[in-house]
């Protein structure tokens, strides 16, 4: 006869086994069509490029060297690959500036939304959510039509006589920046709004009672309390911005490449799959570092604010 | 002007917020207006016309791409929602058990990796399988879409489950209902709004995807977004505006529905 304890243990084991079986299909699909292939990318980054794309199964560290360095064809000396470094720096710079721009615009917007009456709050939330769920390509295309030389911005400025010839915005870094800030703005607003909504305004009142100025209340009370939302928003904007493909392809033209365009190039005309793989892993490492910083920061602020 | 003395007031914030909302909607409004432009070029206004909607409707490439998008979206949404529901049932309403954290991480993994990296990874992996099996149908796109839709479908289903306690299920079990019967008659009806929300989310996410599709598709497998990307790169006609307008309407309709479903059951 099994004791009660043994029966309970067996039931628990069965429960855990059932739970693994239930989650198996989801885990399997994700492993086959998302996580698993990443390991192949890692392997490919250490192989030799094939003549017509794909790879030869021969170990080579060349791809990783080529991420930042260039080998001279004649004397085999290594020098810094200026083109790659420029693209890395441009991508990081554009992503950081996008994050800051969306924060500067998104923070007051989230604050505005959170300070509305409960009934209208839903409406504002809805208005922010709609662009968030509309196709990113369509939104990028909408920006393209606005900032073109014949677009509405240039037309109005010309009509007002502020400029005499259209400003070339399209196919510049500024265009990519405007486009990314535009498409990722809801990603910044939503998490800040989520923390802002829970903000206890009695604390703000207490601040004013103690003769704090509006700015001081903002800086010393509101900002620290919604910091987790700010960090979450920054991560949510920074990561897709760094890997952005659609926005730089449409608004940056051919020459203002970002990392994703450089990667695509290696799998297309470049015919250097190992280099493309190494660049992909490099992007992922940057993203992982950013995520790790977020997790550590979120943990810390979680403790502080209970 | 009572607002100025309110403790909630911060100088300039309302102005910035107003700018934000205007900036968010202005380009979309302009895009929609130009869809009704009679002129052939997008740089001038030639009067009101529906001809670009007509020309899009008669463009077999557009219709094919749209049908393909729907086919992939619907299949991926159904599969990912079923799998996400099962996974959500397996990861909620339980004491922590070995592997639970791993499951959370694994399910959310597609959200953490930039799309371009996943796209490249799938390009490599699927091109090998294509050579090996000779199959080059829509299955690859459906598999890829199902994978990245799972975390989105999982989100509302899990949220819904976490707000449901086990009382009713226990009561059903006390009344000698089999586990399957309990699931069918108790759990599923209660969970339904979450599942519906997950299904719609997954469908929208699949419909919107450009990057992964662009890398995974074989020749002649354009979805509507990848077709549009190709057209935009080649130069634009108001036909793209017309297609975008219809696409926008569809997205707004789905989001509105989603919003009301999740609010009604909040």
UniProtKB/TrEMBL annotation, chain A:
Q: Where in the cell is it found?
A: Cell membrane
Which residues belong to any copy of the ABC transmembrane type-1 domain? 88-296
Q: Which UniProt keywords apply?
A: Cell membrane, Membrane, Transmembrane, Transmembrane helix, Transport
Q: Which residues cross the membrane?
A: 20-47, 94-112, 124-147, 167-193, 229-253, 273-295
* Membrane topology per record: Multi-pass membrane protein
**This protein's name:** Spermidine/putrescine transport system permease protein
Question: Does the record's keyword annotation contain S-adenosyl-L-methionine?
Answer: no
Q: Name one GO cellular component term.
A: plasma membrane
Predominant subcellular localization, coarse grouping: membrane
Organism of origin is Mesorhizobium sangaii
Q: Its Gene Ontology biological processes?
A: transmembrane transport
Family the UniProt entry places it in: Belongs to the binding-protein-dependent transport system permease family. CysTW subfamily.
From TrEMBL, chain B:
Where in or outside the cell it occurs: the entry states: Cell inner membrane; Cell membrane
Set out the biological process GO terms recorded for this chain's protein.
Answer: transmembrane transport
Pfam families, sorted: BPD_transp_1
Residues spanning the membrane: 12-36, 70-90, 111-131, 137-157, 190-207, 240-261
Spell out the family assignment given in the record's similarity comment: Belongs to the binding-protein-dependent transport system permease family. CysTW subfamily.
Listed under GO cellular component are: plasma membrane
Its biological purpose: Required for the activity of the bacterial periplasmic transport system of putrescine and spermidine.
The molecule here is called Spermidine/putrescine transport system permease protein PotC
**What InterPro entries does UniProt report for this protein, alphabetically?**
Bact_Polyamine_Transport, MetI-like, MetI-like_sf
- UniProt keyword annotations, A-Z: Cell inner membrane, Cell membrane, Membrane, Transmembrane, Transmembrane helix, Transport
Source domain of life? Bacteria
On whether Membrane is a keyword of this UniProt record, the answer is yes
Q: What topology in the membrane does the UniProt record assign?
A: Multi-pass membrane protein
Domain ABC transmembrane type-1, which positions? 66-258
């Amino acid at each position: 006869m099994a004791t009660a304890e043994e029966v309970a243990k067996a039931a628990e084991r069965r429960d855990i086994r059932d739970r693994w079986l239930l989650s198996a299909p989801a885990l399997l699909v994700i492993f086959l069509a998302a996580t698993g292939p990443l390991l192949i990318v890692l392997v490919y980054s250490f192989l030799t490029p094939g003549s017509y794309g794909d790879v030869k199964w021969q170990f080579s560290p060349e791809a990783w060297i080529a991420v930042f360095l260039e080998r001279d064809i004649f004397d085999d000396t290594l020098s810094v690959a200026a083109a790659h470094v420029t693209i890395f720096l441009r991508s990081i710079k554009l992503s950081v500036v996008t994050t800051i721009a969306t924060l500067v615009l998104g923070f007051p917007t989230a604050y505005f939304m959170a300070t509305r009456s409960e009934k209208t709050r839903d409406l504002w939330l809805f208005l922010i959510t709609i662009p968030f769920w509309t196709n990113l390509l369509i939104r990028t295309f909408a920006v393209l039509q606005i900032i073109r030389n014949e677009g509405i911005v240039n037309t109005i400025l010309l009509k007002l006589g502020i400029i005499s010839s259209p400003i070339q915005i399209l196919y510049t870094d500024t265009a990519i920046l405007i486009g990314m800030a535009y498409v990722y703005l809801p990603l910044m607003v939503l998490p800040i709004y989520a923390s802002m909504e829970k903000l206890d305004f009695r604390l703000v009142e207490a601040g004013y009672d103690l003769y704090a100025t509006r700015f001081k209340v903002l800086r010393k009370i509101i900002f620290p309390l919604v910091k987790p939302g700010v960090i979450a928003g920054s991560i949510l904007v920074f990561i897709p911005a760094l890997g952005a493909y659609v926005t730089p392809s449409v608004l940056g033209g051919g020459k203002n490449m970002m990392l994703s365009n450089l990667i695509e190039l290696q799998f297309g005309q470049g015919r250097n799959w190992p280099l493309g793989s190494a660049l992909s892993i490099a992007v992922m490492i940057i993203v992982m570092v950013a995520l790790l910083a977020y997790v550590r920061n979120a943990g810390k602020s979680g403790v502080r604010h209970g | 002007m009572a607002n100025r003395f309110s403790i909630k007031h911060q100088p300039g914030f309302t102005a910035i917020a107003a700018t934000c909302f205007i900036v968010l909607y202005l380009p979309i409004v302009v895009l929609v207006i130009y869809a009704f432009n009679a002129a052939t070029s997008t740089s001038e206004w030639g009067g009101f016309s529906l001809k670009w909607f007509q020309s899009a409707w008669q463009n077999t490439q557009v219709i094919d791409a749209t049908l393909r998008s729907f086919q992939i979206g619907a299949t991926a949404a159904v599969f990912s929602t079923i799998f996400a529901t099962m996974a959500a049932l397996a990861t909620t309403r339980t004491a922590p058990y070995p592997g639970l954290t791993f499951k959370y991480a694994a399910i959310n993994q597609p959200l953490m990796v930039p799309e371009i990296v996943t796209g490249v990874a799938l390009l490599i992996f699927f091109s090998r399988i294509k050579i090996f099996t000779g199959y080059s149908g829509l299955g690859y796109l459906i598999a890829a879409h199902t994978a990245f839709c799972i975390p989105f479908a999982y989100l509302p289903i899990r949220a819904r489950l976490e707000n449901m306690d086990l009382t009713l299920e226990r009561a059903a079990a006390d009344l000698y209902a089999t586990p399957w019967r309990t699931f069918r008659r108790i759990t599923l009806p209660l969970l339904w709004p979450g599942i519906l929300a997950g299904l719609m989310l997954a469908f929208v996410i699949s419909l919107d995807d450009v990057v992964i599709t662009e890398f995974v598709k074989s020749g002649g497998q354009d979805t509507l977004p990848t077709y549009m990307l190709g057209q935009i790169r080649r130069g634009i006609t108001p036909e793209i505006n017309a297609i975008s307008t219809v696409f926008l309407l569809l997205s707004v309709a789905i989001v509105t529905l989603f919003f009301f479903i999740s609010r009604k059951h909040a």
